Amino acid sequence: MGKPETFDTLDRQIVEMLASDGRRSASEIANNIGDVSERTIRNRLNALIEQKLVFMAAIPDPVALGDTVSVELRITTEPGRIAEVADTLIDNPNVEWIGYMGTDHDVAVAFPPMSRAEAMQKIEEISAIPGIRDIKKEFYMAVLKLYGFKSRAADDLRKRIKQGKCT
After folding, report:
1. How many helices (H) and strands (E) would you count in the chain?
2. What's CA 5's distance to the chain center, in Å?
């Protein structure tokens, strides 16, 4: 499929426009950039997605999901088992993101917002993976900003501050 293997100036412009408004059409992006066709924009975007240089997703505001928590786990593995543990977690359909860490922990993994009971069940499942020595659990009760977008929790916080209801 058309061009990208790495980002060039046009790819960056496309991604920046979509990051500010993911509903923009290829036609609108082409018109805003100028001197490029809608077809080129569509081909470039498809190539970026196909080559996994860009991911497109709808991210719900955690507040809209009701009484939920966001969970992040920081995992310490047994010596020599980091890649094995990470590989097992990659295939878990509930994992929102996973990455190697450069800290006292080896792997970090996060889940989308869920109920407290679901969170505890997920932690139990992850704890049973062979090669895990320790898990540090972090529960986020409110997410104020996510991927550059302020959440309703942020709006609510500012409203409470204005009303003098926060310390």
Report:
1. 6, 6
2. 22
At 115 the pLDDT is: 83
Residues 87 and 46 occupy one common structural domain: no
Q: Decide: pTM greater than 0.70.
A: no
Assigned domain for 46 exists: yes
Q: Please report the DSSP string for 82-115 in residue order.
A: HHHHHHHHHT-TT-SEEEE-SSSSSEEEEEEEE-
Q: CA of 134: how far to CAs of 16, 23, 42, 138, 153, in Å? A: 39, 42, 45, 13, 31
Domain that residue 20 falls in = 9-50
Q: What is the pLDDT of residue 71?
A: 86
Residue 85 has pLDDT above 80, yes or no: yes
When mean pLDDT is compared across 3-7, 8-12, 53-57, 128-132, the lowest value belongs to 3-7
Looking at the structure of the chain, the number of domains it has is: 2
> What Å distances lie between residue 104 and 77, 118, 123, CA to CA?
10, 27, 19
Pairwise CA distance, residues 145 & 153, whole Å: 8
Q: What is the mean pLDDT of residues 23-30?
A: 91
> Look-up: residue for tokens 């104020």?
144
